[in-house]
Amino acid sequence: MRDGTGAWILVVSHPADTGCGWGAMTVYGEDVHAGREVRTNGGVVVPGLVNLALGVPAIVPLYLAWWLLTEYLPMDCRTPQDAVRPGLANCNFTTLDHAGVVMFLLAVTGVFMLALVFAVDVILPLRRRRRLGAWLATAVLIPVPFAVCLALT
């Protein structure tokens, strides 16, 4: 609700005063960033959709981790010198050549995504007085877009 100056104010609704205090109250906080009133309890639909949207850019670090787990780790060699050793059946020079770049990109994109998830799922709900539990509980939806892409390929 706005006061006469146009600023947002806190609204407290209460039953008729019985003479012994406020009674039961429903408190609505102000959302300073969006400029509207919000209930302090909220649901899980918005956090779920936001975390699903965070899963789209998270496809990059998740795919890089998947590549390292499925292509690089099962190889028998770790250096180009190992590639010429006799008796190695599972050694791919192209995979070996790309491993350093993939590890670097995984570190950079992984740190970026962790910072983004921390900002969206922890800092913003705390600043806007939203339920932190709902945001953290729906964070398990972040890998869903990657799992769908993996299932479709």
How would you sum up this structure, described in words?
- By secondary structure, the chain is mostly helical.
- The protein is built from five helices and three strands; from the N terminus they run βββααααα.
- A three-stranded antiparallel sheet has the order 1-2-3, with no helix packed on it.
- Helix 1 (45-55) packs antiparallel against helix 3 and helix 2 packs antiparallel against helix 3.
- The chain starts with 10 loop residues before the first strand and ends with a helix.
Mean of the pLDDT scores? Answer: 79
How big is the Rg?
A: 25 Å
**Strands ordered across the widest β-sheet:** 1-2-3
**How can the largest sheet be summarized?**
3 strands, antiparallel
What shape does the CA trace take?
A: elongated
Which blocks of ≥5 consecutive residues have pLDDT under 50? 7-27
Counted by DSSP, the helix tally is 5
Beta strand % = 5-15%
Question: Distance between termini?
Answer: 51 Å
Residue share in helices?
40-55%
SSE arrangement, N to C: EEEHHHHH
Would you count the extended β strands for me? Answer: 3
The structural class is: mainly alpha
